[in-house]
Amino acid sequence: MKKFFVVLTLLIFATVALTGCGGGDKTATSDAGNEQEKFKVAFIYVGPVGDAGWTYAHDKGRQYLEKEIPNVKTTFVESVPENMADAERVLEQLVQEGNKVIFATSFGYMDAVIKVAKRHPDVIFMHCSGYKTEKNAGTYFGRDYQARYLAGIVAGKNSKSGDLGYVAAMPIPEVIRGINAYTLGARSVNPNATVKVVWTNTWFDPAKEKEAGKSLIEQGVDVMAQHQDTPGPVQAAADAGKLALGYNSDMRNFAPDAVLTGPVWNWGPYYVEVVKSVMDNTWTNEQYWGPLKDGIIDLGPYGPMVTKDVKDLVASKRQEIIDGRLEVFNGPLKDNAGKERVPAGKVMTDKEMLEFNWFVEGVIGEIPKK
Amino acid sequence: MSDPLIVILFATAVTAGTPLLYAALGEIFTERSGVLNLGVEGMMLVGAVVGYIATLQSQNHWIGVFAAMAAGGLMALIHAVLSITLRANQVVSGLALTIFGTGLSSYMGKSFVGQPVPDQFKPIDIPVLSQLPYIGKIFFSHDALVYLSFVIVAAAWVFIFYTRWGLNLRAVGENPAAADSMGIPVYLTRYSSVIIGGVLAGVGGAYLSLAYAPSWIEHMTAGRGWIAVALVIFAVWHPGKALVGSYIFGGVDSLGFRIQALGEKASFLKDISPFFLQMFPYILTMIVLILITAETKKRRVGTPASLGIPYDREER
Questions:
Q1: Do the beta carbons of residue A195 and residue A183 sit within 8 Å?
Q2: Domains defined along chain B, listed by start
């Protein structure tokens, strides 16, 4: 029996050691000489920096920040679980290490951020995609629906049949908003285009997401879009010789013949702006929802099959959105049951967009009831 | 697209079920010898990442598969040493193996995330057989690893039920003390079965990263190792039933997407919640568990009597 406990203890040590290196919270600091004088900024991530998706995009932002402001020293902690105990512990530790600004890059950190922010009023906290603020805690996110609209234009122009597909993760407003914007974009160039939606109920299962993509292709879809964190749907399209749009980061290397483009996050410039404002004492606890104009979200690089005409059209629409001449959710808008939801001449408010729970005309699919 | 929906559904069930089938076949060997290994998920993940890395380096998917087999086998060896030689608690050791494998695979795959697989498994139509109506499309238009799984099912079936080694294996799982007194090498039998289990789980993982969704993404098995463990019970430790079961388990998931994609055309199926479909395999497993609970039935269906109990020669 004694032996058993020795073995068990050893095993647990080995496990902890290895998971620590792999998925756990191993802090990595970029090395720099005179630490004391540098302005310290920290990031906590929900996934590994190499996920090729969400966290990868945030980490590129962190690297950009360090490059732009040489006096800043950044730290990141990856794969932090979205529960109070872990998130609070990591945040607290980062405060103790002397970080002046802390970016928490996932929705699930919201309550932990608020709790730690109350304890440390001299540290600035920024929480991505949440809605709770404190005197020293603000929120930030990007208007990804504007890029989705442009992606819709590319899809509408490249689809032969007008049957588009969309592999969607969870029926939450963020995803629904993206599907609607994409559909409106596609229908702006092809009024008969329809978007067929399949829900996977997962953010992260490449095999399942690919299977969902295949089920859409069997129904005649010829351009695939996705709101998922893996390239599964893109691969499904590539296998069938169809086209696809990526998401989060440039997914062209997974399927060079299939990927047209895709909405891509670019957090770097915003991180620079926030850190600068904290340094100059001009920071406020605003709730930032960054538009296309700020470059926080945009379309990624195009694949070789996208023609110049399409690129030019997208460029002009993009400019219209930036100038405020084009609003994505501009009335009249009908839902996909034919009921008018936004009257002519009205533009949806931010609050309405943040609570989206219906599909626009042209979407084929249902939002699962709670 | 010209194929009827039912054919597409069954064909998808075969590909979706194949990683489950490999892992379940491996676990059948392991459990038949009386060792419970709950580390399937961890072994699959390590198999997936090692197969992926080996394919990236060698540009050959078969080398990837062999590397995945070796990696799965090595993982299983840890469990074998702990649970057979050191007689540690098999549940604890297996769970630790899963956690260990999850961390290890993330660690190993870190620098490779986002690279496409240079040499993927592509579907090969088997001449003549793939031309058969319905059956051809369902069973004979897949990649080589799917065909290999058919061969392994048949081989495992023959091995377990119709050979002396298979008889020895079952004897060790039923009553290791009696088997030992008959001169059957209990430890050797258990060691080799556990390692075979790891090798097959490794192939199941490699199927995911090289054929099904060719790429490496952390934790890409997403619980399939656990489904495989449930599947072994569902299949009552029989390779043939594991084949049927894995296709049911695999097919149910993709059925949900097909219902959504069909929309109006499948309105009669629309009210089936995807969450119900997700739990459906486990409901089936629980029903089977209930059915085989009675001791006499246990004998008939072949639950290894010494499953989970370490064998100690001294305590005989």
A1: yes
A2: 5-315 (1.10.3470)
CA–CA separation, B281 and B275 (whole Å): 11
- Cross-chain residue pair B105–A207, CB shorter than 8 Å: no
Do A159 and A222 contact (CB within 8 A), yes or no?
yes
What was the pLDDT predicted at A31? 46
Give which of A179, A215, A370 to mutate to test B binding, by max B Cβ within 10 Å. Answer: A215
Mean pLDDT of A136-153: 95
pLDDT tens-digit map of A149-179? 999 999 999 999 999 999 998 888 889 999 9
Question: Which among A329, A275, A267, A327 is positioned nearest to A298, based on CA atoms?
Answer: A267
- Nearest 5°: phi and psi at A159? -85, 135
Domains, chain A: 39-143+267-294 (3.40.50.2300), 144-264+297-364 (3.40.50.2300)
A12 contacts chain B (CB < 8 A): yes
The predicted structure's pLDDT at residue A355: 86
Q: Does A257 touch chain B (CB under 8 A)?
A: no
